[in-house]
Amino acid sequence: MTSPGISVDRVTRAPGVMAPVPSPITTSGRRRRSRGPDVPAHLRDHRTAYLMIAPMVVLLGIFVIWPLLYSFYLSTFEISFYQDSTFVGLQFYQYVLQSPRFWNSLWVGFKAALMIVPATLILSFLIASLIKTLGARLAGAMKTTVYIPTAISAVVASVVFVLMYQARGGLINGLLKPLGIGPFAFLSDVDLALPAIAVPAVWLALGIATLIMLAGLMDIPQSYYEAAELDGAGFFQRTWYVTLPLLRNVILFVFVTGCIAAIQLLDLPLVMTRGSGGPVDSTMTPNLYILSQFRDPRPFATSFSITAALLLFVILGTFTALIFRTVRSDKAVDG
Amino acid sequence: MGTRTRNTVLVAAATGALVVSGLPVAAQDKVQIDFWQRQFEDYQQEWFGAQVDAFNASQDAVEVIYTVVPGDAWDAKLVAAQAANVAPDVATTNYGAIKPGVVDGKFANLVDLMSAEAIADIEPWVKEFVTTADGGVYGYPMLVEPSTVLFYRTSLLEAAGLAVPTSWDDLLAAARALNNDEVYGMNIAQTAGDLGWSSWGLQQNAAGHWPIADDWSAGRATEQGFKDLAQFYSTLYQEQLMPQEPTYAYADCSFFGEGQVAMSACGSWALGQLSGNPDWAAVWDDTAIAAFPSIDGDQTRPTSTLGGWTLTVDSKSDQPQAAADFVSWLLAGDPAIMTSFFDAAGYSKYPVRTSVNEALAADPVASANTALSVVTSDILPYAKPEPAYPWDISFAMGTAIEKSMRGGNIDEALAEANATIETVIAQQSLAGTAP
Known about the structure:
The complex is a heterodimer. Chain A is an all-alpha fold. Chain A has helices at about 10, 40-45, 45-75, 90-100, 100-135, 135-150, 155-165, 170-175, 195-220, 220-230, 235-245, 250-265, 265-270, 285-295, 300-325, and strands spanning about 75-80, 85. Helix content of chain A is about 65%, strand content about 0%. Chain A has a two-stranded antiparallel ribbon. Chain A is flat and about 75 Å long. In chain B, the strands form two sheets. In chain B, strands 1, 2, 3, 4, 8 and 9 form a six-stranded mixed beta sheet that branches. Chain B has a three-stranded antiparallel beta sheet with strand order 6-5-7. Chain B has two domains: about 25-145 and about 305-385, D-Maltodextrin-Binding Protein, domain 2 (3-Layer(aba) Sandwich), CATH 3.40.190; about 150-305 and about 390-425, 3-Layer(aba) Sandwich (D-Maltodextrin-Binding Protein, domain 2), CATH 3.40.190.10. In chain B, strand 1 (about 30-40), helix 2 and strand 2 form a beta-alpha-beta unit. The interface of A and B includes residues 278 and 302 of A.
């Protein structure tokens, strides 16, 4: 296939042979159609594509790129809204990177992801597999049931779980008491607080993850399974050699979006710990940390918050790129 | 054009004309100023709303646009407004934010905008909270409220044969005696954010100074007094003499109101919260207050800071004089306005003007109030103003105390706090900047 816009004679011309003198008259006597000012071929051929992505590029430019650049500009100042802001270069980047609480918040975010994402993936896969085997009516009821938590406000869920976790009068400790276990002050224990917050996070994320998994499962041709069965593959072999490879992109999507959402968790720890991120910063996720810094109205705190947010953006972006690079999603093949 | 369409257009035109001619009439001749009030107890919103209406109706020069902002949205909303140059002309500002705000140039000097009589009416011991070294007054005080008061159930103490505790040892002994499966002996703050400010008075009580040198040049968090303080909190939590979960913030005295605790540290504002809740009437009838116990029983040592609120005028206000006129009318005018506030507050907050104090003293209802008597005679004279250093320092101390409560090593926790304070001093160039 030739490249668009390149004539065959130019491509096939032997080296060392002089190019023919351009003539406005072709051998057939017809005048070549004038194309006006030369537009680069790749631009001309991709014009439609450029036009179609233009609105998104413009919106991204206005609402993402420009604010990002302006935020970086602002982060080089100790910002005052009443006096001249002081240019401090990259000083606040140094302050943020030296802050043990910033790094602790990142570690809390990654720990939250480690708790939430695998649990969500496994549970949603199992539930989706179960739904796939059900009849249409029962499957519809199951899908609705599983999706309901997604429609519930995270704030409402937080309040409900806080009540359930209470050491005195809480449902969970009430269930554990006959077994002679507890009581536990889940949200006041440094070791238990983050897992206690991860539970409603999984519950809230399960609905959408299950539906995505189910869509992926339904997309796998039934003939693959029939062929595997003819070859004597059992359930686990079919799952391992057919289902999981063909769900790779779906799992990757749920994994990446789940990781980012878990690291950026804000509403659950905000409500369940009344904004403290406690006990002792054990549930202080990165976004909650940035918010807590912004609560101090001093110029120092404002600049610090902006810088911490920018660094979080860079770290999350790098993390996401690393995941994509590691799993080589671009090489994944759909069934 | 059909009849229905024609009628619709006529109605719309008439409505538009009414709106255009009616709404702006009052505002056209008046200077408009924005007043943002941080959301407090419900009765405060009612009181502020009624006073703004009264002010707007009392004259034809200034129209106050009143906005209530929830507390957890306050800083973000205010900073965003300042960034957009649309900050409110008048805003509620706490004492601790006045002097740092003056350094940032946020507030107008009220000496230039209010009468000398209004400034002179501020009680001298409060005036220092809002006055800078050059004599400028950058916020007009509204009230003070002690941050730490001991609330206790009289019947429970009597049943246990206990006297009202005056020392920390007494308090711990009483909490142990009152603790059972249904009721905790005591309640006090337990999260870093709450401990950061609610422990200020007890820091002064135990150590006699702040955890930073007077000139803000070095940290002092590792001194013995702070270790004793951390140990006190740790004992209360580790022995499970207090609720093990921060279901309610320190500023919310619901643990006590719901009868879950026999004693509680709360701010004086809890008097209004407790007395105003009909569901807690039985508890309220059984409630008394006292100065919070001191580390060694000496009740003349400070155990509380004096928090409280002022109204400030934004330095970028287009109408600073109109804004100050509103502040003058509300806070510095007829003493009856402010006495009505303290009456509505159930005398859980305390006046800061000489003329208002005199008016309350002459009021038989106010002078018969025992809580008012305890606060004014046993707590206010020994209380300290809130520190003006950055919140990061208070938070570092709150974190150290919380770590101690959760079983952490007290020496290590305070060493970390001290290191954080030293970092804050260096990064924010605090040395020598203490007001």
